[in-house]
Amino acid sequence: MPAERTLPIAAEHREFTVKVDGQAVPKEHAMQAASITAAVNHVATARLTYVDGTAGEGDFPLSNLDLFKPGASVEILAGAGGDPALVFKGIVTGQRLKVREASAPTLVVECRHAASRLTGVRRSANFFEQTDADAINALLSAAGLQADVDSTSVTHAQLVQHDCTDWDFIVTRAAANGLLVCTRGADLALKKPVLGSPVADLRYGATILAFDAEVDGRLQTAAVQVRSWAAADQQVKPTDAEAPAFTTLGNLDADALAEDAGSEAQLQPHAALDEGEAAALGTALWQQTRIDLACGRVQCVGMATVLPGDTVTLSGVGARFSGDALVTGVRQEFDTTQGWKTHLQFGGTAPDAALRDRLQLNRTATLLAPVAGLQSGVVTDIEDPIGEFRVRVRLPLVNDGDDGLWARVA
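RE: above sequence
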């Protein structure tokens, strides 16, 4: 039997439908473009572009309406008119007006998934005798959100969230347990990456419009060992991680790549972890390298039924990249010129630089520019004139011509 060379989508006319507070936006408001992006460990976003603005009247009638007022609930459905699928649900977060000399004026509406309410404010909190899943569910519940969260095994005597947003805390704790945070339409899910039944077969020469992919074996490792300090024993305690069960895309053996790269073990030192937490962390880090062995994106005609966390089959793209791939990102693009196209991402689950920067102490909240790194100093005085147990320290690389600053451990 020949391989299927079509996508599981209706052949009839397909379109995007936008609903605000449950009501479809009237057809008189012409949508020029739509872009919906959902990727693992990121809050889903949508951008809608409408023709708006009349130069003769000097006004923007659509922008003036309460229709796209920030805070309004938005649903975006795509597909055949009789059976559209929900590709995004969230809230309007803002709007912009664009006027250009050679094109029609437009209103651009920015939307984000309801999980965006977790991203606004840095917080600090303590959790006692809870698993990571318990702490995550508590934060979601406090924000009025529900999610399908896989259970985690380690119960923490104490777990600290310090000076970071609830979203960044959730993403980092999920990553430490090998979970991916996925926004799927209206839903939120924290799940272990598992290849399931493919929702589509994308084939070069038939249904693939564009394809970019790469394999990089440099980060593959044959083992992961987490070393932590055992305070009770006053010694370093190594914990070996279990090999991940994730099946990599293509025909390359990740273990063989690790051997060729000369990587016998990846050491992850940490101050203090119990054995269960160390093992979970090591396995999660190892799993992430397996998922990201093959990274890339594939473009096809518009298809609303695939979401982050789903599985698709890639065919006809060579032995290195053919097989079942875990979808880690979906971007739906529509405009009146190019029509509707779907872009799927696989791999690329490593923490990005933006997340690492946000997790750093919020130094910019101070009144002065921050000073970072180890500083060399010379103690010039130990008698604090105001009795606060400070010492005076001269920093030669800052200013070697004075007696320095008074300082102490807070």
